[in-house]
Acyl-coenzyme A thioesterase THEM4
Amino acid sequence: MPADLDPVTRHPKAAKPGEPVGMHNATCYGCGDRSPHGLNIVNIAGEGFTVHADMRVEPWMEGGPGVIHGGLLSTAFDEVMGAVPKLVAGAAVTGHLEIDYLKPVPVGSVVRIDAELLGMKGRKIYTKGVAHLVDSDEPLAISHALFITIKGREHFSAYVENSQAADEYRPYFAP
Ligand SMILES: CCCCC/C=C\C/C=C\C/C=C\C/C=C\CCCC(=O)SCCNC(=O)CCNC(=O)[C@H](O)C(C)(C)COP(=O)(O)OP(=O)(O)OC[C@H]1O[C@@H](n2cnc3c(N)ncnc32)[C@H](O)[C@@H]1OP(=O)(O)O
């Protein structure tokens, strides 16, 4: 992370502490409420530049016997940390995501991910996430991710016809 970070302020339209950050796409696998096989994560804005979300580890999320699949946990990290840019900028996509898996996360538990802004430099937004059980502060996994702000229309226009919600997006992407 660069030493000469930009000053950051909360975006005037950002969710207030305690409010849902809001879906970025209703058919998103991570947060969409119309994703048929999705995680349905609800991101909640916190104080400062933080976001958190709880996720019940369902039997279909199993990787090793009785524990969550690491790739699914990484998706959850991506989703919760990916909501941080909405507090300070706008649409952003993941450029880099890394995770240290410290302890197994049991099926049947409720895992909480706490995400925070580490800093911003130009289009680059540096974040950290910690996963722990809702009733424990012991970290089970720690993630660092870099998000890059984008112009939504430019970034997705070549792909939007593949969307499950292509019909709804078409007017926004019309030339
Ligand atoms: C009005 C209609 C609106 C329609 C849209 C509707 C809804 C959607 C809205 C928002 C949705 C947005 C996000 C979703 C949020 C959460 C979901 C979870 C997140 C994801 O699941 S998202 C999927 C996975 N994600 C990707 O699919 C990205 C693929 N990728 C790219 O699309 C490009 O790669 C991109 C855009 C990242 C950059 O490309 P680019 O050409 O725009 O910019 P460039 O390359 O110049 O990078 C700029 C500066 O970032 C540095 N930089 C870049 N990458 C780096 C890396 N990996 N490590 C270190 N530094 C990196 C450069 O070094 C430079 O740094 P510097 O400025 O210092 O030179």
Strands lie at 44-45, 50-56, 92-101, 110-121, 124-133, 141-149. Residues 44-173 form a domain with the Thiol Ester Dehydrase; Chain A fold (CATH 3.10.129.10).
